[in-house]
Design goal:
single chain, 14 helices, transport, cell membrane
Length: 272
Amino acid sequence: MTRARRVLLSLVMIALAGVVGLPLYYIVVNTFKTQPDMTATPLGLPSPWYFGNYTEIFDRVQILRSFANTLYVTIGSVLVQLAVGAMAAYGIVMRATRFNRVVGVVLLIAFVVPTQATLIPLYRTLVEVELVDSLNGLIVMYAGGAIFSFFLIHGYMKTLPFEIVEAARIDGAGVWQIFWRIVLPLIKPILITVGVFQTMWVWNDFITPNVFISSPDKRTVVLQVYNAVGEFTTDWPAFMTLSVVALVPMVVFFVFTQRHIVNGLLSGGVKG
């Protein structure tokens, strides 16, 4: 690539980054303004800097409770998804029977069915087992994400050196010993990658908690932001402040885990 093309590519990328970053700048900078200041200079820097929006958010909104709810649901859901996905992939890879192939096809069909098409029957099912308006009910709902985990882990697991597994069998290791002591350490990269994907999905999901949660003390962070729209209709800086507070954990999480996404996916590709 010539120098001129590199310069042109850099300019294009900078321009695109500016376009993408402008909404984020608009939101963040206006969290440090009062309503009149925002109306007067929506894109200008605050003068003076106003931090009252942040203290007001924590005083008026149960944001810490929402963070706790979201953290509980996210950790529980992701652990269930990884456990079910890993064990399902292990069973199908280790025993490539006709029945297991049929199960794989059924899972593929279930994966392509949009969640919105199943909300009504799922809601009625959770009503029957008394899990509507429950954080545990949300975990049960998100457990369906194990299908996505299964497909990624299954593809990665097929690239493993199964000579090690055969050697363990000859030494007398059982199915669970092989899974816990050999397979799990070998698939750690893809487990981390899938965990990152699913954590961001569960944390940022809006549809599921909006349908299945009604009590204010059980709201997730995203649902809390949505319900604040009416409360902060005439106070947009306060609403933007709540949005920023809700985004910060996932931004930090992504910054520290983005390398695992690339490494996990590339490891499976290289081994294949």
